[in-house]
Known about the structure:
Two copies of one chain form a homodimer.
Chain A: E1 3-8, H1 19-30, E2 35-40, E3 58-61, E4 64-67, H2 69-79, H3 90-120, H4 128-139, H5 143-147, H6 150-161, H7 163-169, H8 182-197, H9 208-222
Parallel strand pairs in A: 1-2
Antiparallel strand pairs in A: 1-3, 3-4
Amino acid sequence: MAIVMYDLAGADPALRFSPYCWRIRMALAHKGLAVETVPWRFTEKAVLAFSGQGRVPVIRDGDAVVSDSWSIAEYFEATYPDRPSLFGGATGRAHARFINSWADGVMLGGIARLIVRDLLDVVDPKDRTYFRESREARFGMSLEAVQQGRETRVADFRASLLLPVRLVLGRQKWLGGDTPSYADHIIFGTLQWPRCVSRFELVAADDPIAAWRERMLDLFDRLARKAPTV
Amino acid sequence: MAIVMYDLAGADPALRFSPYCWRIRMALAHKGLAVETVPWRFTEKAVLAFSGQGRVPVIRDGDAVVSDSWSIAEYFEATYPDRPSLFGGATGRAHARFINSWADGVMLGGIARLIVRDLLDVVDPKDRTYFRESREARFGMSLEAVQQGRETRVADFRASLLLPVRLVLGRQKWLGGDTPSYADHIIFGTLQWPRCVSRFELVAADDPIAAWRERMLDLFDRLARKAPTV
């Protein structure tokens, strides 16, 4: 029986754009696990009540219910140890947690400051008020104000914020080394979010990160490349 | 025969403060390898000519000469595989490279902006002109101007720059997981630099990073705790 995954969707149910859900879509494919995704919208908190919380991704695997992308990745690694490894052992997992923390604590906020207003145009109509109010409360200003000036600000985002990723990819093919690991899925999933919801390009064409992203888009029978974007 | 390591020293030859050399001092102790350190000053480039470059750390292990802290850590892991592992396998090493890149590309610069003028007071007299000129060229302003306003700026450093480290240490005892790994030595070594050269405290006393740093200071028979500071 396929694993069921609740996956953030837009007004177009085929548009899937959560950075956390993309990490898990890639992790599922990495493990070769079949999945049925259920489109979910921000305001459908009640639909997730069975998971004891209100955010996606949530997966149901037989009797097991797991939420939080990091916990789901750990669950896959523990439950399907004979399939290709996401972490390459306990130390690899511990080190990946730093990359996950950096992506959540630094990278996501940096990206939001460049594309958060664009998201308003793709979320489901019933989510729009929730989305605007919750994000404007978080930033302390209008979505329009947050995103303002991005044409000039993106240079600093590319030079400074993406620097650690660029330094690594200048030395090795994947963040996981010779083969992709969950570290690749963390950073790729985070970049797949703006790629799906905005036409504003965050990664310069001549950046090694762009070439690596093309390789990621081709993984698993071009799973992420086939996904709809705006 | 003990490994020889060229180690950045101040006017006081016992004061050792290079963030890169500290990573390797900790890695040597982690592997249980004996070391003889040779105090070295910034302007003694000729002393390192045998290594084909002009920066420390440089180690000589029998006939092997290795420079660059990351390369030295990889050399130890490959040459002494039966001793406690620094990386926990190929994926752990690949993921640690992200942490190393973040420390070099983000953390070091953030710390320098808070303590770089203090360094001038501890470097060897013969290094002072070199140190001031090279660092002022890098920052495009005087050392005094770089460090100005640190009493207020340190709050942002703590909240934003140290955030990924804090998030990890809220979930696991060491950056390496249940035991220290080279990831711990990277971040600890980087923090040992300001700790040795400045009385300005970068880490708040109630930060989980402070508690972890105390544990790091106690490792290897209190190796780093015994080191002189200003």
